[in-house]
């Protein structure tokens, strides 16, 4: 402790030593009585000793407070302007650390919810494949359908991770959106055939965007259109200053429309039919926002849903 004390106040004792030497030199130069010099040095030495004792115990107390620091400073030992400045800095760092910890905990809770929901969704197609295997009723169309669902859920999780970690790599280029739509229709061909849905693609639309991410966003919309369409109905896609996808499905409740893009929100129809994961439209909205595109959804129960994507 004494070594720390001397390191802390070396400058003060050095100044005292220099002043003492200066006084001795002055006494010698002016040939003043040596008794006066001794009395001066003795008096100042006593004051220095008293000041040193007080300062040492004060320093020791401050060191004990700092070494046993638990987040709060009690007492008045740390009341110098420099002490208060350090305490203010510590308080700011503490608040920043608490905010960061809170953000990490919140993100961890979100991830736990995501993984739980994702694992629950994965069980459905896996259970369907397992049942088909056990009953020896493997339908190629149904197997492809369930595998496509697994692939979509996996893609959603990976894209969710990328967007959450801000690792998305966007490469903008001029895109013929009709070509993207045609490729997506081919991807979902088995589902169109299974529900006997007709498809009508009208118009053309060019937009400067990222091909991979735009394809992902539109795939979520088309997937929903197929899932919630009634059998033997039609899906119409208009391409003119944007993309408008119209289905003749079960529709969406008016009270659910404002929350469709909330994370994890499935709505009444999603819960009733156990088809929604709560991530498709949430991720679609996030991706389109980063692509500087807008999305709007309108719907009527038992008549269908219309989704429009356009350039802001």
UniProtKB/TrEMBL annotation:
SMART domains: HATPase_c (SM00387). It is a multi-pass membrane protein. It comes from the Bacteria. Its EC number is 2.7.13.3. This is histidine kinase. PROSITE patterns: HIS_KIN. Gene3D superfamilies: Histidine kinase-like ATPase, C-terminal domain. The chain crosses the membrane at residues 12-30, 36-57. Keywords: Cell membrane, Kinase, Membrane, Transferase, Transmembrane, Transmembrane helix, Two-component regulatory system. Its main location: membrane. GO terms for biological process: cellular response to phosphate starvation. It catalyses: ATP + protein L-histidine = ADP + protein N-phospho-L-histidine. InterPro entries: BphY/WalK/GraS-like, HATPase_C_sf, HATPase_dom, His_kinase_dom. GO terms for molecular function: phosphoprotein phosphatase activity; phosphorelay sensor kinase activity. The lineage of its organism: Bacteria, Bacillati, Bacillota, Bacilli, Lactobacillales. Residues 117-312 form the Histidine kinase domain. It is found in: Cell membrane.
């Amino acid at each position: 402790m004494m070594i720390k004390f001397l390191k802390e106040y070396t400058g003060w004792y050095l100044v005292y030593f220099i002043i003492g030497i200066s006084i001795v030199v002055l006494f010698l130069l002016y040939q003043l009585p040596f008794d006066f010099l001794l009395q001066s040095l003795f008096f100042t030495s006593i004051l220095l000793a008293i000041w040193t004792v007080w300062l040492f115990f004060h320093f020791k107390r401050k060191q004990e407070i700092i070494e046993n620091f638990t987040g709060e400073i009690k007492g008045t030992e740390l009341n110098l302007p420099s002490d208060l400045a350090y305490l203010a800095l510590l308080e700011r760092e503490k608040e920043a650390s608490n905010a960061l910890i809170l953000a990490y905990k919140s993100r961890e809770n979100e991830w736990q919810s995501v993984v739980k929901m994702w694992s629950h969704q994965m069980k459905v197609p896996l259970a369907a494949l397992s049942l088909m295997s056990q009953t020896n009723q493997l339908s190629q169309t149904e197997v492809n359908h369930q595998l496509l669902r697994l692939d979509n859920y996996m893609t959603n999780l990976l894209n969710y991770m990328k967007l959450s970690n801000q690792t998305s790599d966007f490469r903008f280029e001029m895109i013929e959106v009709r070509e993207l739509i045609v490729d997506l229709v081919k991807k979902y061909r088995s589902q169109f055939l299974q529900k006997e849905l007709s498809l009508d693609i009208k118009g053309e639309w060019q937009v400067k965007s990222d091909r991979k991410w735009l394809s992902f966003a539109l795939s979520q919309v088309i997937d929903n259109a197929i899932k919630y369409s009634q059998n033997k109905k039609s899906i119409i896609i208009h391409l003119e200053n944007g993309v408008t996808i119209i289905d003749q499905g079960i529709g969406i409740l008016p009270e659910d429309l404002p929350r469709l893009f909330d994370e994890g929100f499935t709505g009444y129809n999603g819960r009733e039919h156990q088809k929604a994961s709560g991530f498709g439209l949430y991720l679609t909205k996030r991706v389109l926002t980063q692509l500087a595109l807008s999305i709007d959804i309108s719907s009527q129960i038992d008549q269908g849903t219309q989704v429009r994507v356009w350039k802001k």
